[in-house]
């Protein structure tokens, strides 16, 4: 198992927990008196980084999409994504223009990492808020 596979699994689990925080909290034992307070804190944390849309990376054959530390091409690259990869998005932000598109998406589970919206296809019905 390589590092990328492990990272993908961790991101997928984090995304599912963000989508279903109540289910994750219901599965934890509530025998301890502090459990309700912990559930409130965890729910609040997930609310701040809620997944609002799922997209698919679309790049030219053999090219990868750069994950950036900020909303622009001048920010450092922190990783890459292959074409066809599903990504979970929390919000959108204006940044450096890429092929006429200034919008960048913040990735869920990547600690404030961004990808250019030019390379990510999101369903028209998705209501992605501004960061």
Automatic annotation (TrEMBL):
It comes from the Bacteria. It comes from Streptomyces violascens. InterPro entries: SH3-like_bac-type (IPR003646). Coiled coil: none annotated. Residues 1-26 form the signal peptide. Residues 53-123 form the SH3b domain. Pfam families: SH3_3. Keywords: Signal. This is SH3b domain-containing protein.
């Amino acid at each position: 198992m390589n590092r990328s596979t492990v990272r993908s699994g961790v991101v997928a689990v984090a995304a599912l927990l963000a989508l279903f925080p109540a289910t994750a909290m219901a599965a934890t034992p509530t025998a301890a008196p502090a459990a309700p307070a912990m559930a409130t804190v965890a729910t609040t944390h997930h609310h701040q980084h809620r997944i609002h849309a799922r997209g698919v990376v679309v790049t030219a054959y053999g090219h990868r999409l750069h994950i950036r530390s900020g909303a622009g091409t001048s920010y450092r690259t922190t990783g890459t994504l292959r074409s066809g990869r599903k990504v979970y998005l929390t919000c959108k932000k204006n940044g450096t223009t890429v092929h006429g598109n200034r919008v960048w998406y913040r990735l869920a589970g990547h600690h404030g990492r961004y990808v250019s919206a030019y390379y990510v296809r999101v369903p028209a019905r998705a209501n992605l808020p501004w960061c």
